[in-house]
Specification:
- By secondary structure, the protein is of the alpha/beta class.
- It folds into two domains: about 90 residues, 2-Layer Sandwich (60s Ribosomal Protein L30, Chain: A), CATH 3.30.1330.30; about 170 residues, Alpha/beta knot.
- The chain contains twelve helices and twelve strands.
- The strands form two sheets. A seven-stranded parallel beta sheet has the order 8-7-6-11-9-12-10, with helices on both faces. A five-stranded mixed beta sheet has the order 1-4-3-5-2.
- Strand 7, helix 9 and strand 8 form a beta-alpha-beta unit.
- The radius of gyration is 21 Å and the shape is elongated.
- The relative contact order is 0.14.
- This is RNA 2-O ribose methyltransferase substrate binding domain-containing protein.
- Keywords: Methyltransferase, Transferase.
- Pfam families: SpoU_methylase (PF00588).
- InterPro entries: Alpha/beta_knot_MTases, Ribosomal_eL30-like_sf, rRNA_Methyltransferase, SpoU_MeTrfase, SpoU_subst-bd, tRNA_m1G_MTases_N.
Length: about 280
């Protein structure tokens, strides 16, 4: 293994540090990927996006597989002193990459053959958005669509929370809910919303999907075996004030005393319900 190494200049480090600011990311079309897991997935799945890799000596020794991937991809690698790394990122465990921001895919290409799509309305918290992307990836979703008022899709905080899932599942940002719902239905997907209340309860849909598979009985409501787009709303407001056509509003029940579920947890329950129903055969 031979890393393609080069000493980082002070101006180069300063440019990388400025990518923590949104206007700098927009201006240069670049962002930061922080932490060994996210960088590992970058180098394994989308190494062409990588511009520079910054690591400490300790991180190279601890994460030898990351160094091997960097070597194989021919990515310029800059070994930093511990203080320089802390100045660049305090919580990256000694591994940071500067990447070109991925180009957004078109909606038609996202929806055309998709079996499961996850969409957000306006998720404000970067941690929640990153967890939703990671959950969608784990559930085998074919795409993630992020609403206009949501946190920035490729911000360092969102990417750190997603732990590399940006490089596994196609993502598009700035989507209008009404347009996405209409285009999804045109592509043959049913559009469901995950809510605290709704005309259908998720356990009923899970049971009916199983009965349809085993007994051949037609579901009385939405069929979780169908190609589906799941929408989740705002953390606090849900879908209040939003008006767009959906096929059904689905309630996730609360069996304990909690006031509500975290939005990413609600999405996980719904996405996995569809993923398991679609794969049951």
């Amino acid at each position: 293994m031979k890393l393609r190494t080069k000493e980082a200049t002070r101006s180069q480090l300063q440019r990388a540090q400025r990518l923590h600011r949104r206007e700098q990311r927009s201006r240069h079309g670049q962002t930061l990927v922080q932490g060994p897991q996210a960088v590992r997935e970058l180098l394994a799945c989308a190494s062409g996006l990588a511009r520079d890799l910054y690591v400490t000596e300790e991180a190279i020794e601890r994460h030898g597989d990351v160094a091997e991937l960097a070597s194989a991809a021919g990515v310029w690698t800059h070994v930093l002193a511990a203080q320089d790394m802390r100045d660049l990122s305090a919580d990256a465990q000694g591994v940071v990459a500067v990447i070109s921001t991925p180009e957004a895919p078109g909606l038609n290409s996202l929806l055309g053959e998709a079996s499961l799509v996850v969409a957000t309305l306006d998720i404000a918290d970067p941690g929640n958005l990153g967890t939703i992307i990671r959950t969608a990836d784990a559930a085998g979703a074919d795409a993630v669509a992020v609403g206009k008022a949501s946190a920035e899709l490729y911000s360092p905080k969102v990417m750190r929370s997603a732990a590399g899932s940006h490089f596994h599942v196609p993502c598009v940002a700035g989507v209008e809910a009404s347009e996405l719902a209409a285009r999804a239905r045109e592509a043959g997907l049913q559009v469901l919303t995950a809510e605290g209340t709704g005309e259908w309860e998720l356990p009923v849909l899970i049971r009916e999907a199983a009965e349809a598979r085993i007994l051949g009985a037609a579901p009385s409501g939405p069929d979780l075996r169908r190609r589906t787009l799941w929408f989740v709303g705002n953390e606090a407001r849900g879908f209040a004030g939003c008006d767009f056509d959906v096929d059904a509003r689905v309630a996730v029940p609360l069996y304990g005393k909690a006031e509500s579920l975290n939005v990413s947890t609600a999405l996980a329950v719904c996405a996995y319900a569809s993923a398991m129903a679609q794969r049951a055969d």
